[in-house]
Amino acid sequence: MTPFTSLTGTAAPLLEKGKPMSNIDTDMIIPKQFLKTTERTGLAKGLFHELKTNADGSPNPDFVLNKPAYAKASILIAGENFGCGSSREHAPWALLDQGITCVIAPSFADIFHNNCYKNGILPVRLPAAVCEKLAKEAGGANHVFTVDLASQTVTTPDGEVFTFDIDPGRKSNLMAGLDEIGASLTAVKEIDTFEDQRRLATPWLEPAR
Predict the structure, then answer these.
(1) What is the pTM of this model?
(2) Which of 26, 163, 174, 206 could tie 4 with a disulfide, CB 3.0–4.6 Å?
């Protein structure tokens, strides 16, 4: 997993009627017809398929990621309850395949929120009013934001700084590029020592040979 330390990149606002779009579910992020693979690559083509594609299959020019200025966005700004719906891990995979490694929203669905950390995506929670402000600024002439995990800050193109909270353990793992298994393996010596001591203390628990 690629470590997340600091990201400076284009922020794309997902808007509905001029405000950050709420309740973006995982089927909207990556529709079910794109779930036939267990590979993590090639999923960008299905990302936000119904939003970015017209009924005749042509690109929707009004969708933010189809606009040249946001084609290489690495940050998304959205509304409440991002990632609700099913638990499909293809949702963060599709975001990563598109190059998006940070999502800023007032709230996230729990399973999607957890899946982000398992795949190296930083989900940033900020108040709804702040997300509206960020979305508006991202829609201006300068779309480049900086998200710094060490200082837990989001800096806008105008230089305004907002601070976010994050669990210390998840922060440490993201900065080291470790998922849950990787984090466990950093303690492999301690695990081996525990297992050796357990075998001596409770030999009757060992399987028959």
Answers:
(1) 0.88
(2) 174
Distance, in Å, from the CA atom of 144 to the CA atom of 138, rounded to the nearest integer, reads 7
Whether 90 is in a domain gets the answer: yes
Structure tokens at 128: 């709804």
CA-based end-to-end distance of the chain: 38
Q: What is the CATH number of the domain that holds 123?
A: 3.20.19.10
The rounded distance, in Å, linking the Cα atoms of 104 and 130 is 10
Task: Kindly report, residue by residue over 117-166, the tens digit of the pLDDT.
Answer: 999 999 999 999 999 999 999 999 999 999 999 999 999 999 999 999 99
CA distance linking residue 143 with residue 14, whole number of Å: 13
H/E element holding 171? helix 168-176
CA distance 156 to 13: 13
Q: Hey, what's the torsion of the CAs at 170, 171, 175, 176, to 10 degrees?
A: -40
As to burial, measured by CB atoms within 10 angstroms (0-12 exposed, 13-18 middle, 19+ buried), residue 144 is: middle
Q: What angle do CA 186, 146, 23 make, to 5 degrees?
A: 85
Residue 33 tokens read as 């017809």
Q: Which token pair is 102? A: 């940070």
Residues 101/122, Cβ–Cβ less than 8 Å: yes
Distance from chain centroid for Cα 191 = 30
Is position 1 within any domain? no
Structural domain boundaries enclosing 70: 6-205
Scanning 35-152, the segments in alpha helix (DSSP H) are 49-52, 90-98, 110-118, 128-138
